[in-house]
Amino acid sequence: MHNDFDSLAALIARLDGQGRVVDANSAMESALGLSRRKLQGLTFAQFLQDSETLDLALTKGQAGAEFSMFRFDSTVHGVAGSDAELRVHVHLTRIDPDGEWLLELWPQSDQARTLQDSRVQELAETHRMLLRNLAHEIKNPLGGIRGAAQLLSMDMQDPELLEYTQVIMHEADRLQSLLDRLLEPHRHPQIVETVNIHEVCEHVRSLVLLEFPTGLQIEQDYDISLPDVRGDRNQLVQALLNIVQNAALVLRPKMVHNEARIELRTRVARQVLIGTKLHKLALELHVTDNGPGIDPAIRERIFHPLVTGRDDGTGLGLSLAQTFIQRHDGMIECDSVPGRTTFVITIPLP
């Protein structure tokens, strides 16, 4: 089977007109616990709980050219050589006139996650484009406002009026800083190099501990066997820093009692689905804190720009972090309950 199929999350097999396996991809091999060589020649219906549906589809397909695609739900049994079962969506498509078929099995949980990941990525891209355009529209008039206030302040003699111009300039600078953060991902090209993720973690750990020197512990649980990743070191540092800083900020009440804890944990993950693509190996970086948890009212929107659970937050940190990780073909996910919040950064490994 063409190598392109090996990178897909779907379980894929090529069947002849009698439903016998001609070839299969890596995902199908892993699910059934059989190599494609051992699968060749086996009747695939034996792996389906309701094999009659597949047999009926093949029979109808052979009988008339108008029947060239079938879709139905089924259950695969004997998964990975065990008694486990897997609910799947079945797509059966005739791919040549001689009766050869392409069989796609989509695990129902994976399909739901694929759709969710796709929606997240599309929504994030829409937000980025909207905010980028908005930031450019605001940037020039804002510079004019600040310049005018600065010129006024040079001629002001009344201290009270001078204070007003200082307020205008201060607020213009604050908004300028906000716009700069919105535009940051688009200002610099991505510089891809070999990056040691643990060096990134230690750098971020040092920065945050300098900012919060008392009452906070950042613990390390690293898998030192992890290979280096290919990526932009500065973007990876900024993404992780945004997440760890956010965790530290919500832990400030616990720092008073020396109870604030953040853990950085790295692991290798295998057969990881990110969007619609299956990766054989991926890095998982877990950032876990013992804070109050994320407000359920915003939990589904925390990666959206300008959404924040803190009164002093801008709502840009997590949005920018997700942007940087998506530029590395990865994703950030979050699981939060009171007393424990975990962000998981997943990045494919070469």
TrEMBL record:
Residues 1-41 form the PAS domain. InterPro entries: HATPase_C_sf, HATPase_dom, His_kinase_dom, HisK_dim/P_dom, HisK_dim/P_sf, PAS, PAS-like_dom_sf, PAS_fold. Pfam families: HATPase_c, HisKA, PAS. Keywords: ATP-binding, Hydrolase, Kinase, Nitrogen fixation, Nucleotide-binding, Phosphoprotein, Transferase, Two-component regulatory system. It is an enzyme of class 2 (transferase). Its EC number is 2.7.13.3. It catalyses: ATP + protein L-histidine = ADP + protein N-phospho-L-histidine. GO terms for biological process: regulation of DNA-templated transcription. Residues 133-350 form the Histidine kinase domain. It comes from the Bacteria. GO terms for molecular function: ATP binding; hydrolase activity; phosphorelay sensor kinase activity. Member of the two-component regulatory system NtrB/NtrC, which controls expression of the nitrogen-regulated (ntr) genes in response to nitrogen limitation. Under conditions of nitrogen limitation, NtrB autophosphorylates and transfers the phosphoryl group to NtrC. In the presence of nitrogen, acts as a phosphatase that dephosphorylates and inactivates NtrC. This is Sensory histidine kinase/phosphatase NtrB. It comes from Lampropedia cohaerens.
